[in-house]
Design goal:
The complex is a heterotrimer of chains A (464), B (125) and C (194). Chain B is mainly α and 125 residues long. Helices cover 80% and strands 0% of the residues of chain B. Chain B has 4 helices and no strands. Chains in contact: A-B, A-C, B-C.
């Protein structure tokens, strides 16, 4: 760690991991509710658990992005953070607002929450992933603006690199597109449009920039490969991500009442959405293969490679699986969507944040890398979580295919609930994989506390 | 003079090796069959013992294995499971997607190794 | 220091390998779009033939010549820097090529103005949907290509390239040729072929 203010990232990372644990606990609960419908009812009904599961994901990813930016930007800009106190203040505001929101979901009925938070003054609640009370949304905007100001001033008054500029572009996009969540038109089609302008343009647009920048940063650090080489790849990847991702939004407009041409535009452009992820895999493999030194932090290298592969698998391949309009006609809103969602979020965004944490945490604790035992444990957690996620995805895909066949494709289609009964075996298997994931996560947390001998690299290999 | 001759030869080999690895990857992704024919042509240009020969052979092996693993096994699943059984499609689609992706990722690694003139497993220096 | 480590990707194509991945992906998008167009055309032949007649073929043909000329200027730019190391001359050829792109955009805008004032939109029918999406997507590529060429021209003018180092010029040129090539396929496909 070169700059004192980078250590603010630690706060954000700890909060992120804490919320991650919450997310997975609710995930495991939900998985069980799929097969035991009244589990924890009426205390935590399915719809509430699902809302907490997805909202915690978004909030902890935002914590992770912010923490990563606070670590990455000072080092790239070669100066201290513009206003460290502001970063600390925003951390507490965001954490308290986030915790209160989650408590609100759990303690009172959603309608009461809307009433307490005076949703009728500016109605924004009730949409999937954007369930936050209006006041929380305003809080998110304030935190995001303060964050952007802090990061932006640091970048603008310091060294400007391609990585920090791409990251800044992504983060500005994140804040700007969130503003669409304040517009809540009565027309259901319009409502869906604006909802997707937040959700899609985040995960298949600007977040990809953030992800690519963070991955590139870690790869430069752990491989020592020339910045020029990495920047060149970064340009190409983000150009592809934007070209395919922006018009690719059309794949959400197939059946919402939008004009027909979206079936063409959406299919064609989203068919190439896997390519930026494919390029990311090629890029990460290439850079690691050409590494100029062996970094003592083997776990971080593993996470970086894992991110590239799993993002391609989850976002690229599993996205393509059901993106073409004729296929999506049968598959939309089935467990195939859930399969894609799980692996894409894990492979692209969860893993890239864990990569950043894996790389930067030891440095913030005054070491080049975690000790040998800690790294072994961390790599175990990598494999447990990743393999568990692959199985969750496979089981959900199987469930999805069976669901499509029985409920939509068959000449004698079954009803929704009758179909769900037939999928039970997959849901049990998925729950099992979910528990393995949870164990992997606990192991991951344990790896920060494991004691052991420091990894010593041969003198020549360690360049700083 | 001898030296420049060898380096030219090496350059040509590197070019062939990366072309072979690229053809192998393309055959697995967006240009099937045509790329395999291209791969066979590249194979014919190479000499045993050289790096380009290694990558051409590797590409052919990957693609034949992939063809067998994907089409033969999927066909078997359909024949044994029955075309009109939903469970057949549960297995075939899930299997095909994941195994296909694994082959693609493997071919990407082979391509990257061919760029640096390495074999798959030889130690990087 | 250790030269063995500083490896380059083997040189297969003019310009940077990365730009070729980009070009390849662009061609893939256009390729998928063209095939979709062809398939739908076969299914709706009469309708396509009827509305194809409303397109301004003369303007399209002029634009084809404009783009090909512009591509030629780019060839001259590469030639100038590669064989003579003349970076000022190179930048001049690039500016000429950018001007060609500008003419294309102006002519195309007239065409769009004509269509839009006739009340035609993406929703009018499938033919216009393809016509507008394909040409507008290409339009955006012309703009992007011009931006790339401009960046290279400015760098060339400042002496950023030489006879031995001109990979940037070649990369930009390759991209511009791709933009040209796509139009050369798009124009007969959408405007002419019946």
């Amino acid at each position: 760690m070169k700059y004192q203010s980078q250590s603010i990232a630690k706060l954000y990372f700890i909060a992120a991991i804490g919320l991650f644990v919450g997310q997975i606990l609710f995930g495991v609960t939900l998985g069980l509710q799929y097969v035991i419908g009244d589990f924890l009812f009426p205390e935590i009904p399915f719809n509430v658990a699902r809302m907490v599961h997805t909202n915690l994901l978004i909030v902890w990813l935002l914590f992770g992005f912010m923490g990563s930016a606070y670590y990455l930007v000072p080092e790239e800009s070669e100066r201290e953070l513009y206003a460290p106190w502001l970063a600390k203040l925003m951390f507490w505001i965001f954490l308290i607002a986030g915790a209160l929101t989650i408590l609100g979901y759990l303690m009172v009925p959603y309608a009461t929450l809307a009433e307490i938070t005076m949703n009728d003054l500016l109605p924004t609640m009730g949409r999937e992933f954007l369930e936050q009370p209006t006041i929380t949304k305003i809080g998110i905007v304030i935190v995001a603006l303060a964050f952007l100001f802090n990061i932006g001033m640091t970048i603008l008054t310091g060294r400007k690199t391609v990585i920090s500029l791409v990251l800044l572009t992504g983060l500005i996009g994140l804040a700007v597109f969130f503003l669409f969540s304040f517009y809540n038109p009565d027309n259901v089609v319009m409502d869906k449009y604006f909802w997707w302008f937040v959700v899609h343009l985040w995960v298949e647009g600007v977040w990809e920039l953030i992800m690519a920048a963070m991955l590139a940063y870690v790869l430069i650090k752990v491989t020592g490969v020339d910045r020029e080489v990495i920047e060149k790849w970064l340009y190409i990847i983000i150009a592809m991500a934007l070209i395919s991702g922006l018009i690719g939004t059309g794949h959400h407009f197939f059946w919402i009442g939008a004009p027909d041409y979206w079936q063409w535009l959406g299919s064609i452009f989203s068919a190439i959405e896997p390519i930026p992820f494919f390029m990311m895999t090629l890029f990460a493999f290439n850079v690691v293969n050409k590494r100029r030194r062996d970094h003592p932090n083997k776990a971080a290298v593993l996470w970086a490679l894992g991110t590239a592969v799993m993002a391609f698998l989850g976002a690229g391949v599993w996205g393509f699986l059901h993106t073409l309009a004729p296929v999506n006609f049968y598959t939309h809103g089935t467990q195939i969507t859930a399969a894609h969602g799980h692996m894409a979020f894990y492979g692209a965004y969860v893993m890239v944040i864990l990569t950043m944490i894996s790389y930067s945490m030891p440095l913030m604790r005054g070491k080049q890398a975690g000790n040998a035992r800690a790294q072994v444990i961390e790599m175990w957690s990598f494999w447990l979580m990743t393999v568990a996620m692959v199985f969750i995805t496979l089981f959900l895909t199987g469930a999805g295919i069976l669901q499509v066949y029985l409920q939509r494709y068959s000449d004698t289609p079954l009803g929704f609930m009758a179909t769900q009964d037939k999928l039970e075996i997959f849901y049990w298997a998925r729950e099992g994989a979910g528990v393995i994931f949870l164990i992997g996560l606990f192991l991951y947390i344990y790896s920060f506390f494991a004691k052991g001998e420091d990894v010593v690299m041969p003198e020549a290999a360690v360049a700083s | 003079m001898m030296k420049s001759e060898t380096s030219k030869n090496n350059e040509q080999q590197l070019k062939n090796a990366s072309n072979a690895a690229l053809a192998s990857l393309l055959n697995l992704t967006i240009l099937p069959v045509i790329s395999f024919i291209a791969l066979l042509f590249i194979y014919k240009k190479t000499q045993p013992g050289n790096i380009d020969h290694y990558h051409a052979v590797l590409g052919i092996k990957i693609n034949i294995t992939a063809a067998l693993a994907l089409f033969l096994v999927s066909t078997l699943m359909i024949v044994l499971g029955g075309f009109h059984s939903p469970w057949t499609w549960v297995y075939v689609i899930t299997y095909f997607t994941i195994v296909h992706t694994i082959f693609i990722v493997f071919a990407i690694w082979a391509l990257v190794r061919s760029w640096s003139g390495d074999k798959l497993r030889s130690k990087h220096n | 220091m250790n030269t063995a480590i500083i490896e380059q990707e083997p040189k297969l194509l003019p310009g940077d390998l990365a730009i070729w991945f980009f070009i390849f992906m662009e061609l893939l998008v256009f390729g998928i779009a063209f095939i979709s167009y062809a398939v739908v055309r076969v299914q709706n032949e009469d309708m396509f033939n009827q509305f194809q007649l409303t397109l301004n073929t003369e303007l399209g043909a002029i634009n084809t010549i404009v783009l090909i000329t512009s591509s030629y200027f780019v060839v001259r730019a590469v030639h100038t820097i590669k064989n003579h190391g003349d970076y000022i001359g190179c930048s001049h050829w690039l500016y000429a090529a950018i001007a060609g792109g500008g003419v294309f955009l102006v002519l195309k805008s007239f065409e769009y103005y004509d269509k839009f004032s006739a009340g035609i939109s993406l929703s009018t029918n499938t033919f216009y949907m393809f016509y507008l999406s394909l040409t507008m997507f290409h339009f955006l590529h012309v703009i992007l290509g011009m931006i790339i060429l401009l960046a290279i021209a400015i760098k060339a003018q400042r002496g950023g390239y030489s006879a031995s180092n001109h990979i940037g010029v070649e990369s930009g040129a390759s991209y511009w040729h791709m933009v040209d090539l796509v139009w050369i396929i798009l124009f007969p496909l959408v405007y002419v072929m019946r």
